[in-house]
Amino acid sequence: MTTTHTRPEHTAKQGWATGLTAFAAVMLFLVGLLDIFRGIMAIAEDDIFVTTRNYVFAFDLTGWGWIHLALGVVALIVSLGLLQTATWARVAGVVIAALVIIANFLSLPYYPAWSIVMIAISGFIIWALCVVRRDDFFDLSEERPSRTT
C-alpha cells in the first residue's frame, strides 16, 4: 500500500496572512533600498541635505549616511528572509522597521518629506508583521495550489 500526501486546503485567513507577509517583505525591501540610496547621498554629498542649527539631535550628516546605509543593507537581508516566512525574519523585521522609524525621526529636520514617508511605510511594515499569527500563513516560496472550479 502506498500513501499519498495531500496538502491541506488554504483558507482565506491564510491567504490574508500570506498577503500581509508578502506586503511587509516588499515594503521592507523598498525601505532598505531607499535607505541605502539615502545613506549614499549623505556620505557622498553632505550639501544635499539642509543643515539645521540648534537642533536637539545634532549629528554629522556623514555619520547619518553610514547609519542609514547599514540599516538599509540589513533591511534588504531581512526582507529576503520574510519571503521564506522565517520567524527570525518577522522579529528582525519589526526591530529593523522600528530602528528605521527612530533614525528617520532623528533626521527629520534634514529631510522632512522623505523622513515622514519612511516613518509611515515602516509603521505599516510593523503592523503587517505583528497582525499575522504564525500558524496562519504558508511559505511564500512554495507553489500555491491551483484552484479547480
Describe the structure.
The protein is mostly helical. It is 64% helix and 0% strand. It has four helices and no strands. The chain has helices at residues 12-44, 61-83, 87-106, 112-131. α1 runs antiparallel to α2, α1 packs antiparallel against α4 (112-131) and α2 runs antiparallel to α3. The longest helix is centred in the N-terminal third of the chain and has 33 residues, at 12-44. It starts with 11 loop residues before the first helix and ends in an 18-residue tail after the last helix. The model has no long low-confidence stretch (mean pLDDT 77).
The radius of gyration computed from the alpha-carbon positions, rounded to a whole number of angstroms, is 19 Å
| Tertiary shape | elongated
* Proportion of strand residues: under 5%
- The tally of beta strands, per DSSP, is 0
- The succession of helices and strands, N to C, reads HHHH
The helix fraction, in percent, is 55-70%
Quote the average pLDDT.
Answer: 77
Subunit arrangement of the protein: single chain
In this structure, how is the largest beta sheet organized? none
> End-to-end span in angstroms?
30 Å
Could you say which structural class the secondary elements and strand pairing correspond to?
A: mainly alpha
The low-confidence parts are: none
Number of helices: 4
